[in-house]
């Protein structure tokens, strides 16, 4: 599949990011609560470089424009993403809510990239 220069540029992962990520503690408390290591030591954010070393790639996208966002379209095309889903994480909308949020919290591996 051929890509245009514009698609390749749009699909390029961000070099700088406003993403916020922290090292997690080992607590098994309610997964909806913050689990930053700040409880035992000063809060230490995970840098974009730290995340990159773990294989985390970031793009900043407009979730409200997901159907028409050219950057999202380019990322999907260039990286070969074909599946999409929209889930609402609330007790009213998500069947098996309690089990599902626990599964989100536990480390797990997928054969394909997981993009959220």
From TrEMBL:
Keyword Oxidoreductase: yes
An example Gene Ontology molecular-function term: acireductone dioxygenase [iron(II)-requiring] activity
Region spans: Disordered: 26-49
The keyword Iron belongs to this UniProt entry's keyword annotation: yes
Cofactor(s), names only, from the UniProt record: Fe(2+)
SUPFAM superfamilies associated with the record: RmlC-like cupins
InterPro entries per record: ARD, RmlC-like_jellyroll, RmlC_Cupin_sf
GO biological process, alphabetically ordered: methionine biosynthetic process
Known EC number: 1.13.11.54
EC category: oxidoreductase
Domain of life where this protein originates: Eukaryota
Pfam family, one: ARD
Reactions performed catalytically: 1,2-dihydroxy-5-(methylsulfanyl)pent-1-en-3-one + O2 = 4-methylsulfanyl-2-oxobutanoate + formate + 2 H(+)
Keywords: Amino-acid biosynthesis, Dioxygenase, Iron, Metal-binding, Methionine biosynthesis, Nickel, Oxidoreductase
Coiled coil: none
Record PANTHER family: ACIREDUCTONE DIOXYGENASE
Protein name, UniProt field: acireductone dioxygenase (Fe(2+)-requiring)
Species this protein is from: Monoraphidium neglectum
């Amino acid at each position: 599949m051929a890509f245009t220069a514009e698609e390749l540029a749009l699909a390029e992962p961000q070099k700088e990011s406003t993403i916020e990520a922290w090292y997690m503690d080992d607590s098994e408390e309610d997964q909806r609560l913050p689990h930053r290591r700040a409880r035992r030591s000063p809060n230490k954010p995970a840098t974009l470089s730290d995340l990159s070393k773990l294989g985390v790639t970031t793009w900043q996208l407009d979730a409200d424009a997901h159907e028409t966002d050219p950057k999202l379209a380019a990322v999907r095309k260039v990286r070969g993403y074909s599946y999409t889903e929209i889930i609402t994480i609330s007790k009213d909308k998500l069947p098996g809510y309690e089990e599902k949020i626990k599964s989100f919290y536990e480390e797990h591996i997928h054969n394909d990239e997981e993009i959220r």
